[in-house]
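PROTEIN DESIGN WORKSHEET
SECTION A - STRUCTURE
LENGTH: 137
TOKENS:
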């Protein structure tokens, strides 16, 4: 069962990659935009996201108690990329007065809910780890 699900997932991934490659080749006028997004993604990840996560991780190792270190790392790694992905909607880039259906939600509230859930999960995991004593060492 698991093997067939792996094959099906792999086949779907290959099919989507082939479709994306076909779209890229057939729409040659957009290659510059694609290159810009690829470069910007690497720069944002390496210069911004990775740097922030490393700094927060270093602070967590020095300041946080041992049971909280791993949950904090997971929280940073989870919330960092989601925040970067949310920047366009949080900044309402692309909103237009002539089309009110674009960006018609309160995306800030949604991000705050996600950040709150992440915080609750980090605190909960820290409490569980501290009671079990698994965070020591």
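SECTION B - SEQUENCE
RESIDUE ASSIGNMENT:
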């Amino acid at each position: 069962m698991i093997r067939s699900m792996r094959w099906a997932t792999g086949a779907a991934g290959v099919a989507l990659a082939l479709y994306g490659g076909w779209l890229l080749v057939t729409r040659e006028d957009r290659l510059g935009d694609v290159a810009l997004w690829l470069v910007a993604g690497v720069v944002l990840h390496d210069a911004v996201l990775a740097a922030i996560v490393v700094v927060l991780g270093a602070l967590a190792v020095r300041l946080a108690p041992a049971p909280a270190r791993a949950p904090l790392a997971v929280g940073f790694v989870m919330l960092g990329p989601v925040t970067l992905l949310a920047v366009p909607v949080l900044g309402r880039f692309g909103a237009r007065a002539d089309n009110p259906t674009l960006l018609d939600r309160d995306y800030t509230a949604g991000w705050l809910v996600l950040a709150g859930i992440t915080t609750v999960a980090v605190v909960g995991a820290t409490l569980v780890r501290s009671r079990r004593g698994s965070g020591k060492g």
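SECTION C - NOTES
Residues 1 and 7 are 10 Å apart (CA to CA).
The chain has a mean pLDDT of 86.
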